[in-house]
Amino acid sequence: MSSNDPIITISDEALETILTVRDREPDAAELALSLAVTGIQGLDFSYELTFIPAGDAGEGDALRLHGSLPVIVPADSIEKLRGATLHAGAGGGLAIDNPNSPIPRIEPGTAAASGPISDRVAAVLEQQINPAIAMHGGWVELVGVEDTTVLLRLGGGCQGCGMASVTLRQGIERALRAAVPDIGDIVDVTDHASGTNPYYDPDYAHRH
Q: Is the CATH code 3.40.50.150 the one for domain 117-207?
């Protein structure tokens, strides 16, 4: 990784705020800002900003100088924070705009231009979508196709998950429409409320 790769951007206002806080510390000149992804909160990453001695940067961590402020991004947070911007938020605090997301990224692919919709959707699920969400312990199955309406059931880590509807809309639906452009509605018929036994209710599907 090039030392010229900044990983993140820090606005002038945010930098001034951080330096003002750091200057209150007795060993301010030796301190770096550590910015790490600590987990997932809702649909976004959660973060921790702390001051640590610049010499404490570990092997693989990114240590960059922003003005007079050393910034450390731990090795396991680098790709999660790449391209993010730290800026001044409301009330004099700090906020992070991060283009990265814990939602699985499913890239549009290609599928046969002909053949039944059900066969093409099943191929996309098997070749693209299920491998992408397997890391989250989830899977998607094709329940059926009615005319051009595709009925899907989410299982495993996707069932009952608060992110399930967002994952379906932002990832699965985008990939399916890119690969099979002639599909119509995409309906999630999973019973997310049960959390243990998804079922398909045809009446529910038709109402939604």
A: no
- Say how far apart CA 155 and CA 138 lie, in whole Å: 6
- State how far the Cα of 162 lies from the Cα of 169, in Å rounded to an integer: 13
* CATH number of the domain located at residue range(s) 8-97 in this protein: 2.60.300.12
| Nearest alpha carbon to residue 173 among 154, 159, 156 | 154
Residue range(s) occupied by CATH 2.60.300.12 in the chain: 8-97
Tens of pLDDT along the chain (208 residues) come to 556 788 999 999 999 999 999 999 989 999 999 999 998 765 578 899 999 999 999 999 999 999 999 999 999 999 999 999 999 887 778 999 998 877 666 666 555 556 889 999 998 888 888 887 776 677 888 999 999 999 998 877 665 555 555 556 567 888 888 888 889 998 888 765 554 333 333 343 333 3
